[in-house]
Amino acid sequence: MPETRTRNLRRSGVQPESMQTRINDFVIKIANVNGTGSASANGLLMKAIFRMGIPVVGKNFFPSNIQGLPTWFEIRVSREGYMARSGRVDIMVAMNAQTYAQDLADVSPGGYLLYDSTWPRDKQLVRDDITVIGIPLSQMVNTHFENVRARILMKNVCYVGALAALLDIDMQVITQLLKETFGNKEKLIAGNLKSIELGYNYAKEHCKCPLPLKLERMQATADHIMVDGNTMAGLGCVYAGATVGAWYPITPSTSLMDAFKDFCERYRVDKQSGKHRYCIVQAEDELSAIGMVLGAAWNGARAFTPTSGPGISLMNEFIGFAYYAEIPAVLFDVQRVGPSTGMPTRTQQSDLLFCAYASHGDTRHVLLFPADPGECFQFAVQAFDLAEQLQTPVFVMSDLDIGMNDWMVPKLKWDQNYIPDRGKVYSREQLESMQVFRRYIDNDSDGICYRTYPGVSAKGSYFTRGSGHNRFGGYTEDAAEYQDVLDRLRRKHDTAKQLVPAPVLRIKKGVKTAIVSLGSCDGAVLEALDVLAREGTEVNYLRVRAFPFNRQVEEFLDGHEHIFVVEQNRDAQLKSLLLLETRVEKRKLTSILHYGGMPIDSRCITEGISKALAKGAAA
Amino acid sequence: MSFMQKPKVSHSQRLHNELGLSLRDYEGSMSTLCAGCGHDSITAAIIQAFWELNIEPHKVAKMSGIGCSSKTPAYFLSQAHGINAVHGRMPSIATGANAADRNLYYIGVSGDGDSLSIGLGQFIHALRRNLNMLYIIENNGVYGLTKGQFSASADVGSKAKKGEVNLQPPIDPAIAALTLGGSFVARSFSGDKAQLVPLIKAGIMHNGFAMLDVLSPCVTFNDHEDSTKSYAHTRQFYHPAVHADFIPSKQPIRAAYDNGDAMPVELHDGSTVVLRKVSKDYNPTDRAQAYSYLHAHQKRGEIVTGLLYIDEAQREMHELSNTVGQALRDLPYSELCPGSAALEELQSQYC
Asked: Is A235 an interface residue toward B (CB < 8 Å)?
């Protein structure tokens, strides 16, 4: 960003003439220091916009740290309902002196920067193409609050007040939200309201309010909720009837088990006895966590573990065991940036290949790719059905962006008629009436055999092992017997194609260019499609929702000439998986990759496609 | 092929337990271990114990890791479900299985490599959780299946078959269990069935994690002169500190215990273990004393055996988790799913 140091700063509150009025379509970015309580202030701001009926999404960019490092919160207001990052920053709230230079540079031309004018800014840092607004936040808050911690917290609430005036947020909505948040804690409500007022009144008095960037009430958020994916996945586990959860804390998956625990405390405690209808075990490591899941599932309970890439690395030996011994398991991989420890608080989709074939030997697994918190709920429930139908581990491949950020999604509905599909399990009666039970016989020719639970009947007993076994469950080192079982496992994985969620398609007849993508790229892709269409480029779209790929994926690939595979990793893992597991020709596929750890934005996609198409036209 | 059908040998018609089952009903497939292996004696003791306890075989879940010891669950209770996990990871499988159904009997068989090297973490965490199970370590100080490397329980100065001398101090599972808060710590010897069977019975009925370390000589790789885990060495330095008699709940306790040498400990189900102390200065309910006794005697090279420590009051995993009494896996779905109205209501907080 060019900096003009010779010209004077524009005076506070005066807008550059070039700024056009933009209603319900801009990005607010708040730069802060972590551990200062900014999350609740930012949440309040976002929720207020949501309550005004305006589509909004928030992304939290936080450090792997408890206190003192830079943190950002980005709120995108989008009347069109776009949920991805836009790549713009229209209003920067620069609360962190440490990152001031970078934050100033990040503001899009014509935008605004709001700062705490209690202290002078670095006069060297100047931009004449934006408007700088100074509000003495600390000064005002310090005169009203004695307590040191309150001063730190209230400074953040104070900028929400200033923004309320500048953007024309309904104050009634804010007051209502504070009441809901703090319930009958009158003192807290009063303190927060005071801080809001300080910021609000100061802005009203000293700036021309509202700015050309402003909010106007809409009706677009009715029947929607604002929620994160981990919470919804945890809720999904409760609705699926999971009773055993085992885990080891790891960012960014920890809040999934926190949510499961909260919901269990709410819905699964026996009213009379106070006893729990669930058992959560915090394991000594992820390998133990998956071991516990397998033990519980072997014994007939629905069990799961939430984790992230490093946890999956540790779980590998048990994942292979579960695959070969045919034990159901549900794993949530809330993906973060790898390799190794990588960047624990940044997002990526870089565990695809690793999970698809996790563990040594010939293994292949079932993966589900939710795109938002709504699908986290839906796929959590479906994952348990699939795991028990197929008697195998099922991975729900979420990521940090979906798992930890609040997304606007349609309200969830629950089908009261849903009955869990527990798969092929012989009951006591069935066992007693049969001559002999054999564990690994493919009675139905779908690769899936019948199992039994321990303790049900002496006739149902068998020995579960990860060593070579034959179709009777007996130990073997015989080539033919071993291959017989291994080939059936391959058939079983093919059966999974008919059971996993189908891809989501957006197709226009005759269009030969397409995007294939997955998971949290969805918002950016949908926006990119609109942008490209406005520019005259029609592109079809398929969002993969599961591995193994089913026939619809094959047919879509067949039906298009030039296919852009959009994903968030360096090595084009989805593209690799498509090349390995479908008949698509390599020349058809072009990668668009985004892997810096920030959620993908639509510009990365439109630019990638435009460039490639221009190059193709020139050639 | 190392999987063999056991020949059908009919036992005496008179030997039936209260369930009308013979010892044969508690057996498994044919052992493929070396002739004379200590592990086979332990298997026989396990069969005897379950038969005497009148436990229905299919109400038992038997589990193991990897190694010679871990093969043995195939050799007993063929009517029980078994699971042969990966190396050193049986405790986590047992934890999950127990979480799903607290009402089965859980027995885990492990070895010194499986529990004290690769699986040390899982072993001590299951113990710390006080998981309700009997955990047997068939301890021979050596890796058998990979042909004779020292394990973590090998004593300093003990010689391998090819002459190598072990220099690293051993991990003693009994000392470890005492230190880490184990609620039932016992040691025995595969060659002493009279001591072993009651210990197994007490361990099965104990409400919590029963750690039973059983010295079980490896006839192929660690039974030579200069090995401290050989039959000869174990017999020579064998030091029973406490005898344990297991008395089922229905049976009256006949002996008198006023002389201070014997101590009855009531187990969760109403059965009793009577501890007869060989040494007057030994108190198996005092953790610190048990520890120093073990420590002092082992320094002299003695192998202290018996039910070394018991605390029946310590809460097991489900009691700590406040779980319902019924097996979680048997709870009807209607008791697990909050339903559509609850979902509707819940979502108001996300608007």
From this structure: yes
**Looking at A382-391, B129-138, B261-270, which range is the least confident one?**
B261-270
Residue B3 is predicted with a pLDDT of 52
For chain A, helix (H) and strand (E) counts, in that order, are: 19, 23
Interface probe for B, chosen from A46, A219, A279 (most Cβ of B below 10 Å), is A279
Both A381 and A434 in a single domain?
no
Residue A578 and residue A434 share a domain: no
**SS3 for A475?**
strand
- Give the minimum alpha-carbon distance from B129 to chain A in angstroms, rounded to a whole number: 9
- Domain ranges in chain B are 23-330
User: Smallest Cβ distance to B324: which of A276, A292, A455?
Assistant: A276
Residues A527 and A437 in one domain: no
The H or E element containing residue A567 is strand A562-567
- Cβ contact B84–A464 (<8 Å): yes
Count of pairs with CB atoms under 8 A, one residue in A, one in B: 225
Is residue A335 one of the residues assigned to a domain?
Answer: yes
- Strands (DSSP E) contained in A62-126 are 70-78, 91-94, 112-116
Question: A394 with A441, same domain?
Answer: no
Residue whose pair of structure tokens reads 């369930």 in the numeric block = B19
Over range B37-43, report the average pLDDT: 96
Q: Would you put residue A497 in left (φ > 0), alpha (ψ -120 to 50) or beta?
A: alpha
B75-113 confidence digits (pLDDT tens): 999 999 999 999 999 999 999 999 999 999 999 999 999
Q: Tell whether pTM > 0.90.
A: yes
Region at B226 (left for phi over 0; alpha for psi -120 to 50; beta for the rest): left
- The structural domain count of chain A equals 4
β-strand pairing of A213-214 with A22-23 = parallel
CB atoms within 10 A of CB A81: 17
The predicted structure's pLDDT at residue A600: 97
Per cent of chain A over pLDDT 90 is 92
| Assigned fold of B23-330 | Rossmann fold (3.40.50)
Band of residue B269 on the pLDDT scale cut at 50, 70, 90? confident
Residue holding tokens 């349609």? A410
Domain span including residue A54? 22-214
Q: What per-residue confidence (pLDDT) applies to B11?
A: 55
Which residues on A lie below 8 Å from B83 (Cβ)? 295, 298, 325, 463-465
Chain A nearest-CA distance from B324, in A, is 5
- End-to-end Cα spacing for chain B: 64
State CA B137 to chain mean position distance: 6
Q: How far is A371 from chain B, CA to nearest CA, in Å?
A: 19
User: pLDDT tens across A161-196, in order?
Assistant: 999 999 999 999 999 999 999 988 999 999 999 999
Q: Is residue A6 part of a domain?
A: no
Q: Give the pLDDT of residue B109.
A: 98
- Kindly tell me the sign of the dihedral angle through the C-alpha atoms of B117, B118, B120, B126: negative
Gap from B346 CA to chain A (nearest CA, Å): 10
Rounded to an integer, what distance in angstroms lies between the CA atom of residue B63 and that of residue B59?
13
What CATH number corresponds to the domain at position A264?
3.40.50.970
Q: How many CB atoms lie within 10 A of CB B39?
A: 28
Look at residue A419 and tell me if it is in a domain: no
Give this complex's ipTM: 0.95
Other Cβ atoms less than 10 A from the Cβ of B227: the count is: 25
A12 belongs to a structural domain: no
Does A179 lie in the same domain as A92? yes
A296 → closest Cβ in B73, B100, B323: B100
Q: Measured between alpha carbons, how far is B94 from B70 in angstroms, rounded to an integer?
A: 14
- Residues A494 and A510 grouped into a single domain: no
Name residue B340's amino acid: S
CATH assignment of the domain containing A83: 3.40.920.10
Domain CATH for A614? 3.40.50.920
